[in-house]
Design goal:
Layout: E1 5-8, E2 15-21, E3 26-31, E4 36-41, E5 46-51, E6 56-63, E7 66-71, E8 74-79, E9 84-89, E10 98-105, E11 111-117, E12 138-140, E13 146-148, E14 156-161, E15 167-172, E16 177-184, E17 189-198, E18 204-210, E19 216-221, E20 225-229, E21 235-240, E22 246-252, E23 258-263, E24 282-286, H1 301-314
Antiparallel strand pairs: 1-24, 2-3, 3-4, 4-5, 6-7, 7-8, 8-9, 10-11, 11-12, 12-13, 14-15, 15-16, 16-17, 18-19, 19-20, 20-21, 22-23, 23-24
The structure holds the ligand O=C1O[C@H](CS(=O)(=O)O)[C@@H](O)[C@H](O)[C@H]1O.
Ligand LVWBJ73I binds near residues 16, 32 and 206.
Family: Belongs to the SMP-30/CGR1 family.
InterPro entries: 6-blade_b-propeller_TolB-like, SGL, SMP-30
GO molecular function: calcium ion binding; gluconolactonase activity
Length: about 325
């Protein structure tokens, strides 16, 4: 197996959410805390960056050069060619206390995004709600806004679907637990949530991806490795990484046989970051198995809205 390579010395504060664009053969990813959308081209090594006005948790590809961005302030359609931002929906939570975190599209192209607690005013008590948890995972239902897609979790992460689309994986990093639920592909609803895997002390289950064999690969935040679980939740292997704070893998490259992995430097004290240059890099390695085709947001929310308006005008 090819060794882990640093493909972009990004010094990201909170690299996250890599998604491979099959159409562009490029990797989109974000920096949540130095808010920016990035696009990396493995053929040239070039990394493009678009600064964002607020923390960006995750995004969905819509079409070539166009993405939907989950910013703390809401969901926006962003055209990377013109820099045009089109407002789609407000955030479904109190943005003074929460911000979007991990998200992604199901195998039918519905977009989901979770949250993590980040009070703007640290003096305000961290009121997580009556049950002591955070917010649910949110499903973007177009003109109908957001629907709840899970019980509340504190640090939403690890969203992925099985190859047949009928199992949804979702984790709570704070609870060190990955859940799996039965997923209805027709309605976008998840039921019968149960524990899929728990991780050890000293690590948090972070972003994840499922491969074509149905194995769940997640970044072990704080432990410098990826964990690969079989479809029954048994740990099958650990893959050592050169950074301690790895955040999420994504399949990409020719035949979806490369694993790209983001990482974060924010947990490292500022004074130590120069001596820890791997934290915040983007990595690539040969994947243990090929990945699944990444899904794009369908339909394009702006086109769907136009259709909705013209239907209403006709009626
Ligand atoms: O900001 C983030 O941090 C969490 C880990 S922690 O809450 O700081 O322990 C990480 O899991 C998450 O994905 C990341 O975006």
């Amino acid at each position: 197996m090819r060794n882990v390579e640093v493909v972009c010395r990004a010094s990201a504060l909170n690299g996250e959410g890599p998604v491979w664009s099959e159409a562009e053969q490029r990797l989109y990813w974000v920096d949540i805390r130095a808010p920016a959308l990035h696009r990396f081209d493995p053929a040239t090594g070039r990394n493009e960056t678009w600064g964002m006005p607020a923390w960006i948790g995750c995004f969905a590809l819509i079409e070539t050069d166009v993405v939907a961005l989950a910013l703390r302030t809401g969901l926006f359609r962003f055209d990377t060619r013109s820099g045009t931002m089109t407002f789609l929906a407000p955030a479904p939570f109190d943005p003074r206390r929460f911000t979007f975190n991990d998200g992604g599209c199901d195998r039918s192209g519905r977009f989901f995004a979770g949250t993590m607690l980040d009070p703007i005013d640290p003096l305000e008590p961290a009121d997580l709600g009556t049950d002591g948890n955070g917010t649910p995972l949110w499903r973007y239902d177009g003109a109908a806004g957001w629907g709840c897609a899970s019980p509340p979790v504190q640090t939403s992460n690890g969203l992925a679907w099985s190859p047949d689309g009928r199992t949804m994986y979702h984790s709570d990093t704070a609870q060190k637990t990955v859940f799996r639920s039965d997923y209805d592909t027709a309605t976008g609803t998840a039921e019968n949530r149960r524990v899929f895997a728990r991780v050890e002390e000293g690590m948090g289950p972070d972003g994840a991806a499922v491969d074509a064999d149905g194995f769940y690969l997640c970044a072990a935040f704080g432990a410098g490795c990826l964990l690969r679980f079989d479809p029954d939740g048994k740990l099958e292997r650990r893959i050592a990484m050169p950074a301690r704070f790895v955040t999420m893998p994504a399949f990409g490259g020719v035949d979806l046989s490369t694993l790209f992995v983001t990482s974060a430097s924010f947990p490292v004290p500022e004074k130590d970051r120069v001596s820890r240059p791997m934290e915040g890099c983007l990595f690539a390695l040969e994947a243990p198995a090929r990945g699944l085709t990444p899904h794009v947001l369908t339909p394009d929310p702006v086109a769907a809205d136009k259709e909705h308006r013209s239907d209403k005008a006709i009626a």
